[in-house]
Fold these 2 entries.
Entry 1:
Amino acid sequence: MTDDVRIARNDEKNRYEILVDGEIAGFTEFERDAEGRFVFPHTEIDPAYGGRGLGTKLVAAAMEGEAARGETVVPECPFVVTYLQKHDVPGLQIAWRERDVETAQHASPSEPTPGDEGVGTSRG
């Protein structure tokens, strides 16, 4: 059986959501900063959906969406930072914050990531 996986931008909640069979399985939040850039501070995948690579699919689609919109992204969430360090997103403008890059570089490779294990601190 194949899950129906869909990703949608929810402007009311300022986030991209990943839905599995119509149920929200996770999200990556965004907010505009004073310079009009899109800051991505947090990504979360419900533990019930962990281990499926949904975080990676979600962040990939969100970054592609922002590139298509011609926006500049400020990656703050360690998962988003790590994703962007490992993947080229054509047309995406990235405003790197040094402390976030350093945090991602020093993260334990054995520590679960939101995309793989469903971790993330709930922000309501």
Entry 2:
Amino acid sequence: MTRLFLCGLLFTLTLGCTGDKAKEMMETAEFEERQMNLPHAKQLYQDVIRLYPSSKEADIARTRLASLSRE
């Protein structure tokens, strides 16, 4: 579990070096979803929608949230 947390933290910190925050948040949310950390993935998708509502990433986040809500 610690290893997974450290990998996620490293992944997130690495993304902090680029400029497109909506894309970075989506990549982190997708990573969390793949790791089955669904509460955190959902929170990140919601953050993308709230912070970047007119972005293409927000559209994708809405779709992912809807899909996760059905599961």
